[in-house]
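Entry type: protein chain
Record version: 2
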Amino acid sequence: MIAWIGWHADSDLAGEVAEHLLLGGHRPARTEQRVAARVESSNSDGTVARAQALMLAHIEQPLPCRDIARRVGLSLRQLERRVKVKFRCSLLQHYRQIRMAKAHQLLQQTELSVTDVALSCGFSSPEYFCRLYRAFFSHDRRQSTSAPVLRLQMPQRIAKRRSASDDRNDS
């Protein structure tokens, strides 16, 4: 589907849709399809991948970073260093990004209340969640559900198509 969007609309739009769906990007049509069980090996660090899998599995009830490190067999400091090298942020920041991405997806794709989303992503305080969400996405929920999330501006080809279709609908 992402490839179809790239062929018929715009490659940048396809990338943004893939990002919005938390696919991590889109692959060119000529490349091999990714196997779901394949561990990301760009850094050939399976420990970080296992830590990330633990974070993804524990979004609703986040684990303390020390527990994540213990479960993957590293000290907290070793895991923090590896995450910093791979993701260019701290372990806690990366975990928060994962949780915020899930919250963003829920706010965009469901009718859940902000409080329900906050709780389902491991935030005990909806007020703190709202402050963090605004800081993370630079706007609040009311704006994000009425506008495209990742698109700063529409490609000219699509804008022209939409305005032409709007003109036809008006007449």
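Comment: The longest helix spans residues 91-109.
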